[in-house]
Amino acid sequence: MITAPESTLIGRENPFAPDPNLRIWMDGEFVSPAEARVSVFDHGLLYGDGVFEGIRIYNGRIFKERDHIERLYESAKCLLLDIPMTHAELSRAMNAAMEANNIVDGYIRAIVTRGVGLLGISVAHTACPSVILIAASIQLYPPEVYERGLRCITAGTLRNHPSATSPRVKSLNYLNNIMAKAEAKNAGADEAIMLNPEGHVTEGTGDNLFILRRGELHTPPASEGILDGITRRLVMELARQRGYSVFESTLIRHDIYVAQECFLTGTAAEIVPVVSLDGRCIGDGTPGPITRQLMQDFIAYRNKG
Ligand code: PXG
């Protein structure tokens, strides 16, 4: 008689299992987390072949919805991936997902995978991309991080060369960023700053970077190989409204070491101060006044909805 090999995998409890009450939007219908399953033949799983967006909901409204939808379609276009819905249909589905889950302040993850296909990387071996919308609460940095600031290291893992799959594509391949974040954790730091293959500063693992130097704000240009962040664009606008000059500048680590202030921007973190890099204090090693002012401006902007 043949018996199944003993396995420690069967019947395990997952401490990170999703809330069973969530309603997940999958290819046009709402399903439970238990039913929200992707095929082992989906090229999103097999090859990381797909795109996504992370979007905030504030006061029952989807924040910067149009910008996120546009970026999702642009990412897909670069990957020759046809999203099988119009912008308006996607917007309606995102709002339906928010309402079905009674989210007033939270998050939407929009995912498009290449879909089920043959075992082979050819894009001709798939026909039906899948669209998935998860509306849920969001994991944020704890409040004390905004008070004390992040301690960062420079990651050894580089951002992709812009001529490889561009970092402007928000693809399902996040391994460089995942490894850089793990480097930070292993070094006892909060976050990692990633360089491009030329040694220029790009961004954090999931946030864009700004420095204040001689009273001016600088952030690396998209051409250095960054995600063209939607929060970044808004922060540039808010800073200009405050009268600061904002430049898109090539930066090297030296520029951060000698900066007066530094902060990261992103959908999840909003604006978070950076107080050290590779053991060098930035400014006096506490969140700077202009960073704090922009944090307040950002909160006022998103609260007015
Ligand atoms: N750089 C990278 C590499 C990112 O992934 C940003 C910058 C900031 O961009 P936005 O447009 O958000 O200002 C991101 C954004 C998640 C998650 O769940 C990741 C992001 C955003 C929201 C959620 O991992 N990344």
**CATH H-level superfamily of the largest domain:** D-amino Acid Aminotransferase, subunit A, domain 2
The secondary-structure element order is EEHEEHHEEHEHEEEEHEHEEEH
Given the structure, what is the number of helices?
Answer: 8
Proportion in β-strands: 15-25%
Largest sheet descriptor: 9 strands, mixed
What percentage of residues falls in helices of 4 or more residues?
A: 25-40%
The assigned structural class equals: alpha+beta
Q: State Rg.
A: 21 Å
CATH A-level architecture of the largest domain: Alpha-Beta Barrel
The counted number of beta strands is 15
Structurally, the number of domains stands at 2
Mean pLDDT equals 96
Give me the oligomer status.
single chain
Give the low-pLDDT segments: none
User: Could you please say which CATH topology of the largest domain applies here?
Assistant: D-amino Acid Aminotransferase, Chain A, domain 2
**In CATH's first tier, which class of the largest domain applies?**
Alpha Beta
Question: Span from first to last CA?
Answer: 66 Å
Query: What overall geometry do the principal axes of the alpha carbons give?
Result: globular
Features:
single chain; 305 residues; alpha+beta; D-amino Acid Aminotransferase, Chain A, domain 1; D-amino Acid Aminotransferase, Chain A, domain 2; nine-stranded mixed β-sheet; six-stranded antiparallel β-sheet; 27% helix; 24% strand; binds 3-[O-phosphonopyridoxyl]--amino-benzoic acid
